Amino acid sequence: MKIIHIAHHYWPVVGGLENVVRALAEGMARRGHEAHVITSQYGAGNRPREEVINGVYIHRVKSTRFGYPDLTYPLEVPGGILRNADIVHGHSQNSLFTVKMIEEAKRLGARTVVHFMAVDAFNDHPSRLIRLLAPRYGKRNVKKAIEASDVRLVKSFRDMEILRSKYSIKTEYIPDGIDEELLGKPNMAEEFRRKYDIQDPLIVYVGRLHKLKGIDILIKALAIATKEEPNLKAVIIGPGDQRPYRELANKLGISDKVLFTGFVDEDIKIGALDTSIALVLPSVSNYVEVFSLAITEAWARRKPVIASAVGEIPYRVKHMINGLLVPPRDSTALAEAIVTLAQDRELGRRLGAEGRKSVLTWDEIVSKLLSIYSCG
């Protein structure tokens, strides 16, 4: 099959959705399919407009952007590529780029698939302006994506429920996966401890350093938790501006208990998870939690998860079954959950082992998608 994936960013941009599209495209190319990615030029630096990486044909088109990545709009459409496709798979209806390309693919006669993400998820955004304007934009894009798609997928049971109840649309659940080698890697905790000279118990955050991710809530919770567990430390892994969080840790007198690593390679990230008591995700908005790959990675390493009950998280993390759920923006409740697992390691082992049962590999996800593509 000739399969085209649509996303406004692709490698060398690194992020959750970018990594997903790359895993799917490369996985399909390895199976002998002709895999393409149509994306914008944003984030590509000096890389060529057309290139092949790991068997995937990449097409970067001229685009313009209105402030936010989702507001990227293509200024050209590679009609010849779209016209001859067997399947065109668009990722995220919140992206202007994706919706426009899917509309064009549909007009040219291609079979179209849209992966819906964070449907109607702007209502709890901290910004009043976004709460006012974004819901209208979101509903517009959902309707356009529904009209232009032959197959509708979700990676969130929250989105499935909303599309069924509010838009009368039936969808299929296809989550994200992980690399199979992650399941069989030896424990890498000692390597991580040696690298960073840490022997104390740890909690770990993995993700972007963004205000919607609640990292300030995590730091405040750590300040509370260390009153009961004074040796506890936090490792914060991911790209973004560290300054406001370093300043907060310093203000709370716990700067020596927070390690910021920035972006790290996979081995260091896995070493941090292996070392940890738990992965902690204190997000404050539905919009940023469509499907947390960090949760899947933690479960793959048999680690429990402590997370805010926002977005898809409460549909996946079941309190006292495979993790602990806390209310968003509640640093006291988060601190109590952290202390619970710091003091009861056996509970953490049970929760992590239960989470491991739900983990799927990218190979399994690619098989599911290829089966869907082949139907109809």
Structure description:
Residues 14-181 form the Glycosyltransferase subfamily 4-like N-terminal domain. Residues 190-357 form the Glycosyl transferase family domain. It comes from Thermoproteus uzoniensis (strain 768-20). InterPro entries: Glyco_trans_1, Glyco_trans_4-like_N. An eight-stranded mixed sheet has the order 3-4-2-1-7-8-9-10, sandwiched between helices. A six-stranded parallel sheet has the order 13-12-11-14-15-16, with helices on both faces. The mean pLDDT is 94. Helix 5 links the parallel strand 9 (151-154) and strand 10 (172-173). 41% of the residues lie in helices and 19% in strands. The longest helix is centred in the middle third of the chain and has 21 residues, at 128-148. The protein has 376 residues and is an alpha/beta fold. The chain has helices at 16-30, 79-83, 96-107, 128-148, 157-167, 181-184, 189-196, 215-225, 243-251, 266-275, 293-300, 313-316, 331-343, 345-356, 362-374; strands spanning 2-6, 34-40, 50-53, 56-61, 63-65, 72-74, 87-91, 112-116, 151-154, 172-173, 202-206, 233-237, 258-262, 278-281, 305-308, 323-326. The protein is built from 15 helices and 16 strands. The protein folds into two domains: 2-177 and 361-374, Glycogen Phosphorylase B (Rossmann fold, 3-Layer(aba) Sandwich), CATH 3.40.50; 181-356, Rossmann fold, CATH 3.40.50.
